[in-house]
Amino acid sequence: MTAAPSLTAHAAPPTPQTHETTLPPGWRITYEGTVRHLVWRSASAIPMADARVEFHAGGRTLGIPEPGRDGRTFRLRLDATDAAPLTNLQAWAAGRRLNASSEDTRHQRRGSLTTARPPAPLPPGAVDPGTPGSYRTTTGEYDLPPVRLPGFKVPVEMRAVVVAPKTARGPRPLALFLHGRHATCYKDEEATGAWPCPADTKPIPSYRGYLRDQQLLASQGYVTVSISANGINSQDWAAEDGGAQARSSLVRQHLARWAGWAADPASAPVAVRKAPKADLSRVLLVGHSRGGEGVNRAAMDSLYPPPSTQDGYRGPVRWHVRGTVLIGPTIFGQNPVPDVPSVTILPGCDGDVSDLQGEMYVDGTRGVSRGSALHSAVYVAGANHNFFNTEWTPGRAQAPAADDFLDDPEQKDPVCSPGSPTRLTADQQHRAGSTYVAAAARLFVAGDDRVRELLDGTGRRAPSADPARVLTHAVGGRRGAGFLPDGKVSVTGARLCAAVDPSPAAACMGEDAHGVSPHFAKWETGRETGRRAVELRWSAPGSPARIQTAKPLSLSGASSLALRVIVPPNSRGTQFDVAVTDTRGRRATLGRVTADGLPGSDRTASYWARELRVPITAAPRAGVDLRQVESLEVTPRSRAGQAWLMDAWAWRPGTPVPQEAPLARVDLGRLSVKEGDSGVRTYRVPVRVSGHGSGQVRVYVMDPVTGEAKDRLVTVRPGRDDIAVSAQVKGNKRFGYDVTHDVLVKAVHGTVVGSHRGGVTARNDDPLPKMSVTPLADRVTEGQTLRWKVSLSQPADADIGALFAVVPVPDGPELSTQDVAQSWLLESGAEPAPERPLSQVERLGVWPYVPAGATSTEVSLPTVKDTVAEPAESVRLALTDDSGAPLPGGPMMNGTVLDAS
Asked: Is residue 151 classed as helix, strand or coil in its secondary structure?
């Protein structure tokens, strides 16, 4: 008998007849036609969120699965990269494992850190941007016809809420808000990701979640608009960039409308006509989570246009983005815009984007362009991901909402469990968020340099954000030359380590660390070139770490040296002496700095750099030539400890007006081709280089079988074919895997990267072999083993697996759980007691695997002998489809067991 064109391979017990690709509980392989999927079903629902779910096997990333509507099932299309045994299967999201057992989770937390304490309060700043302004506000909404975006089948809504000052005169700056990825529709206590919403459900108004922020800015004279992106959230799982380009297109569609309404006020919706005229030369973009990545891309696309085939807005740019605010953002492409100032808010108890990858909006700008744009990281201790949006906050939201930092009642987290001394309430968190959004507006748009000290690592606080403990560091602005471990440096007395590397000897942080570091957030490769830090370990004070640059640096004109140093969470009072030496060997000790660790636990990303400043005044007195400094010394003065130096900069106060450089822009595309029946064809990975000037990018070429990456530094110029990556596609007539040749690219200097991922995918175009069953021992005496042979109509270049599930027999007695070997039941995840027919045990069956190149395999079902006289009993197993239901007309395994008495 032959099967219908859908086979399913499920988790199999480790019996001798199963293939080495036996999968753990919860995982299975499915076939739909000729397409092979790896499917994971979670024991509980995974809320629709901003971090991407990833499948990993054997320490390598397999890919991004498609989420099912039930919120528990995730499916990943497999290709040749996944031909190796799928060992140690894991589901991850933003650095946290989703499929760990409760016992594994508790084991990971046993080595908890010392008691966490809130950071010491900072002195107040000269101004408090969280203080409401003098304007009364007006609120209204508009709902325009939806727009179509490339790669999205369903049009996306053009809906927004406007909050504006009532009596403000003249054109006012515009602040646009974009929410992140969240469920889109709800009914009662159930939420889904459908769009448009089914008739019996309501849309979740995520765009209304920033009204408090909007009202504060509007009271200070800003026109604000918060836009809805549910249509993108429902469809972005299929987008290679997670929806960043689509969100950019939506943002610019709204900005284009506002530019048109400013030119022709009579054409504007009522909510816009009630607001003052918007000044599109002064725009602030605010994005939460994936919305943060979206507004970052919108700022990039406004300066450096994307490929028209990928873009959902193709009109003129009639606005100027002065800055961005990114709240708990994703940055899947690790492609920040270097010349647009930014503030990135990092929530210390983020349970969604838990690796705080948004730090790359700061670290990833170093050395890329002119460096005059300020990029600030704002660490809010005790804040979670969701509560910056009231529509994601329980007790305030219309739809079901939850705290994204999941609390374990049996083992409270010392930092982030509700009620902990360091955890903020929803109201405290939102108030802090509003204050720092307003701080960014006041600095980037209004140009008030007095507020800079709240954002740039100076160590001042905004009282309106109290009792939140908010810490900051920054790069750019008026910082000058820097000691960068990423560059050409030599290190003595310490270790130059890699931010991302599979080797513990090379990596900056090992698996024994209690928590993770945002600075070392992983990208899409197992190893990255050029992301480094300096690790210091000491067992006694007084052992200096020396960092020497390849070329002398000029610290002339600086007032301080600003170091960004990570010390372990919950540590206190780690002290360092800081010294510099010039090219003539003259050395000066600048002074001593002290660093405290952030409150942290095993579940937080608290290995975060504190900005430490030491005056440079001692250097000229010691005769050091500040124009020719060649080395930096950092000497621990505390007892045994550990620290990481991220960088050190010549610092002076002030906020320059950034000038956007004419950079080259790189975008990768994807080509999908059929493999064909014979021959070898060569295809080029689509690459577009646009913009101006020349620059450098690092190109990673992934091996289509092993998934390992090889990288090279490439100089690119618009219009030239500098990134040339070819893929050979071999044709055949046997069913096999799709073969994906992936390429990644990251900006190094003088460039920006839009679409960071592309390649060539060779699709399998051969039919799945037909499956049949031949009985080998289908009528046995109890105590013997039933056996069947499963055959394919022809060999394949891929493992073929299936689940034959036990189904009711048509007539007569059926084998029960007491008639088969208990070990077989237990390995299948079933209990022998109470006794019941095998067909009543959910998802019970046998799991044949036919290895690649073979045409058959055997499966067996062991029975047991008892002393009870009974008639012959039968069992039937049927090939199942993707849902576990028997395939109509599919092959069967029938067996009969005779009484031995």
From this structure: coil
pTM higher than the cut 0.85: yes
- Provide the token pair at 843: 């998802």
C-alpha–C-alpha distance, residues 189 and 842, integer Å: 28
- Does pLDDT of 44 surpass 80? no
Average pLDDT over residues 589-600: 97
**CB neighbours (10 Å) of residue 788?**
25
DSSP 8-state class, residue 479: -
From 695, 698, 693, select the one nearest 751 (Cα to Cα).
695
Return the HEC string of 296-359.
HHHHHHHHCCCCCCCCCCCCCCCCCEEEEEEECCCCCCCCCCCCCCEEEEEECCCCCCCCCHHH
Residues with Cβ within 8 Å of 871's Cβ and at least 6 positions away in sequence, in order, are 812, 813, 899
Distances (CA, A) of 68 to 46, 235, 392: 10, 12, 21
The secondary structure of residue 862, as a DSSP letter, is: E
- Which of 176, 294, 187, 175 has its CA nearest to residue 231? 294
φ, ψ at 747 (rounded to 5°) = -70, 140
Can you point out the beta strands (E) in 426-544? 470-475, 482-483, 489-492, 495-498, 532-538
pLDDT in tens, 454-472: 999 999 999 999 999 999 9
- DSSP code, position 837: B
Handedness of CA 209, 125, 295, 271 (dihedral sign): positive
The two tokens of residue 27 are 């995982």
**C-alpha–C-alpha distance, residues 872 and 9, integer Å:** 30
Residue pair 820/895 in contact (Cβ under 8 Å)? The answer is no
From the list 638, 519, 514, the residue with the least C-alpha distance to 569 is: 514
Task: Report pLDDT digits (tens) over 601-641.
Answer: 999 999 999 999 999 999 999 999 999 999 999 999 999 99
Q: Which helix (H) or strand (E) holds 641?
A: strand 641-651
* Distance of alpha carbon 375 from alpha carbon 366, whole angstroms: 10
Structure tokens given for 770: 């037909």
Two tokens, residue 713: 């530094």
For residue 114, what pLDDT is reported? 55
* DSSP-derived 3-state class of residue 633: strand
